[in-house]
Amino acid sequence: MHKRNRLLSSSCLLGALLTTACEAPAPSSPSAAPAAEAPAQAPASPPAASPPTDEAPSAPAAGNLGSTASGLTASNCRQLTTAKATASGDDGAGSVATNTQDDNLATRWSGLGKGSWLSLDLGTSQALGGATIAWHQGATRQNHFTLETSEDGTTFTQAYAATSALTADAQTYRFTATRKARYLRVTVNGNTVNDWASITEARACGDDTTTPTPTPPTAPTTDSGPALPRQPYLQSVGTTSALVAFRTGVSCTPFVRYGEGSDISRTATATAAGWQHAVKLSGLLPGRSYSYVVEACGSVTGVRRFQTATGPETTRVHFTAMGDFGTGGSLQSQVLQQLTPARAGEFLLTLGDNAYSSGTDAEFQSNMFKPMAALLREVPLFPTPGNHEYVTSTGKPYLDNFYLPANNPAKSERYYSFDWGPVHFVSLDSNCRSFTVSDCTTALQKTWLAQDLAATSRPWKVVFFHHPPWSSGEHLSSTAMRRDFAPLFEQYGVDLVLTGHDHNYERTKPMKGDAVAPAGTRGIPYLVVGSGGATLRPFPGSQPSWSAFRDNSNVGYLDVVVDGGTLTTKFISSTGAVRDSLTLTKTLPAAVAQPSGVSAMSVDAPAGPTYDPTRQPEFLRNQKPVPPADTMESVADEPEPATALEQQ
After folding, report:
1. Measuring CA to CA, which residue among 72, 71, 96, 95 is closest to residue 84?
2. Do the beta carbons of residue 425 and residue 562 sit within 8 Å?
3. How far apart are the C-alpha atoms of 173 and 76, rounded to whole Å?
4. Most buried of the four, 37, 435, 466, 566, by CB within 10 Å?
5. Angle formed at CA 527 by CA 521 and CA 529, multiple of 5 degrees
6. Could you give the CA distance from residue 369 to residue 375 in angstroms, rounded to a whole number?
7. How far is it, in rounded angstroms, from Cα 356 to Cα 533?
8. What is the CA radius of gyration of the chain?
């Protein structure tokens, strides 16, 4: 049987254990102005700071650890005995960790700084079902917090994240499933008034067999708590797994609730505390719709959905592609108004120049992840790098921001392949032939590409990269890319090549070698889709005979549907008009062969960059706003090495 919740504004309600407090109740404290922002980490040694008026020192308490007749009551919690309470620090004036166990509401623990924590050691490993917390001044400020559990007191796993309710009542937070642990840690990431962490009483809750079986968690429809500096985006989505990447404003160990359909009862936890995360969802099924919610450092995102990759038995796939879009400007916005999650298909290919003008981390944040947040929360992204990404450290921010299949011998994320339904996709890095990059030379890519294309059993093959082998736009054709890779495309039956770089749309006739494929022979159409948002450029000359269609008046994206033996592309402008279309047909084998273990079946991405969990990384400190790259000058190209400029 559960005890009913009691108001905690009066210590007289706590019974005989608190008779001293009843005789001399603590005076109420006036509201205080917020304290100055503290470093966003759990301080090992708290700075010497005077508490604000609502954090006035409290008298040291006797401790009363181990009391089983606690006056702290709340529904749905079988309170466990705390053997020892510790904290990341305190105010230096008596508000210590043991105050949270003394059944005295006139005392508390207070620690300054976002990320301050209180840890309860239960003495032995036990089944934990949640926690009950009475927040100091809980009726006037809401605390952003996480609950974490640990067996050894060193490695903690997040179990709960939320913002406290505005109430003086003790609040019980139940985990979705029982956890075996010896330690329970409460990490407070500030509150709605200041950066102090202040807890009057706290208890771990045991697994209560009398508690009714909890109903499956209801997926929140809107974001709550502090806004994430970077909203979730989907990476390396395969048939059985997916990565949900995001950034947090404070260091913590977040988790993702997910499940098939509208269910979110499964949990995947980040492997370590930090500021940038890519949480792996595993045990998925091919071609199914999944819901997910991110809970991180007091932030809870509204539910979003995505689809896993389909297997080789599936004959249909719908996807979109665009390049030269990362401006954060007005033309990009026009395209995104048309390219909604509902219209984007199962995933999105990007064709380079993802972040103008120099591919810095700040530009990725301002010009790609921020304006595309709604799209990338639901549509898996498979990018390729452009020349603007190579302006900064030969593409390091690009590699740091994406989690891509490293399924080549060099284990490089610069080029990779993956399968989705009936199509085998290959992303090449056309910058590598112009820059000295040890894990991405032309020779390495050519050797790998031949092996990769030869091994796949998917009936359709699409290759995408940045510099176009055929173009009548400002840069003209990259004859170097054509010379190095077109023979392999032709030898291994590539059906379609997608590129960017020139800020226009152009489709060639079927090409073979250095000319239009002769009648009755097979050729490959090359499409330039550099119209995703950068300022469009004039064509320098008349339309060549090999160019089937070109447009430098409309921004837009490419919509592609493969259905059995038919592949159809449509260039859709920002107004929704279909400006160009292409249909390819082929006779498919009677039955699709099963995959042969080709490297593309692996979409596991290497772990991303690591940052000191106790020190806020540069990308969260003093990052100045990036102006949109909305002019011809702001998207102009840096000079490239001569090898990149070989043209016909």
Report:
1. 96
2. no
3. 9
4. 466
5. 175
6. 9
7. 11
8. 29
Residues 6+ apart with CB under 8 A from 551: 504, 505, 506, 531, 571, 579, 580
The answer to whether the CB of 65 falls within 8 A of the CB of 101 is yes
pLDDT digits (tens, 9 = 90+) for 54-64: 555 444 443 34
Query: Which residue reads 């889709």 in tokens?
Result: 529
The rounded distance, in Å, linking the Cα atoms of 494 and 461 is: 5
Residue 213 is predicted with a pLDDT of: 57
Q: In degrees rounded to 5, what are phi and psi of residue 295?
A: -120, 115
Burial of 213 by CB count in 10 Å (0-12 exposed, 13-18 middle, 19+ buried)?
exposed
Whose CA is closest to 508, among 518, 523, 493? 523
Is the separation of the CB atoms in 174 and 129 below 8 Å? yes
CA–CA gap between residue 232 and residue 249 (Å, rounded):
13
Bridge partners (DSSP) of residue 515 are 512
Three-state secondary structure call for residue 340: coil
Query: Tokens standing for 449?
Result: 């590409």
Extract the tokens encoding 612: 């000191």
Q: With contact defined as beta carbons under 8 Å apart, do 123 and 65 qualify?
A: no
Q: Which residue has the tokens 């980040």?
A: 270
- Cα angle for residues 575, 577, 580 (degrees, 5° grid): 135
Q: Name the one residue in this structure whose structure tokens are 């749309």.
A: 505
AA letter at 430 = S
Strand-pairing partners, residue 425, are: 418, 462
Name the token pair of 528.
Answer: 């330039």
Instruction: Report residue 125: phi and psi, to 5°.
Output: -70, 130
Asked whether residue 507 carries a pLDDT value surpassing 70, the answer given is: yes
Residue 645 predicted with pLDDT over 50: no
The pLDDT assigned to 646 comes to 54
What is the rounded CA–CA span in Å between residue 373 and residue 224? Answer: 16
Taking CA 376 as the corner, what is the angle to CA 372 and CA 378, rounded to the nearest 5 degrees? 135
pLDDT tens string 440-496: 999 999 999 999 999 999 999 999 999 999 999 999 999 999 999 999 999 999 999
* φ and ψ of 623, to 5 deg: -85, 115
Read off the amino acid at residue 64.
Answer: N
For 393-412, what is the mean pLDDT?
96
pLDDT tens readout for residues 101-110: 998 888 999 9
Between the alpha carbon of residue 549 and those of residues 275, 324, 351, 580, the distances in Å are 46, 19, 19, 7
Pull the structure tokens for residue 74: 């709340």
Which among 201, 170, 186, 190 is positioned nearest to 106, based on CA atoms? 201
Q: CA–CA distance from 115 to each of 180, 191, 429 (Å)?
A: 24, 11, 40
pLDDT at res. 49: 45
Report the C-alpha gap between 310 and 563 in whole angstroms.
13
In this structure, the chain runs to a length of 648
Average pLDDT for residues 407-414, to the nearest whole number? Answer: 95
CB atoms within 10 A of CB 62: 12
Long-range contacts formed by 210-217: CB under 8 A, 24+ apart:
210/1, 210/2, 211/2, 211/76, 211/129, 214/174, 214/176, 216/263, 216/264, 216/265, 217/176, 217/257, 217/264, 217/265
Mapped to the 3 state alphabet, what secondary structure does 573-609 carry? ECCCCEEEEEEEECCCCCCCCCCCCCHHHCCCCCCCC
Rounded distance between C-alpha atoms, residue 446 and residue 449, angstroms: 5
392, two tokens:
């900064």
Which H helix or E strand runs over 614? none
**Higher per-residue confidence, 75 vs 557:** 557
pLDDT in tens, 287-322: 999 999 999 988 999 999 999 999 999 999 999 999
Write down the pTM of the prediction.
0.75
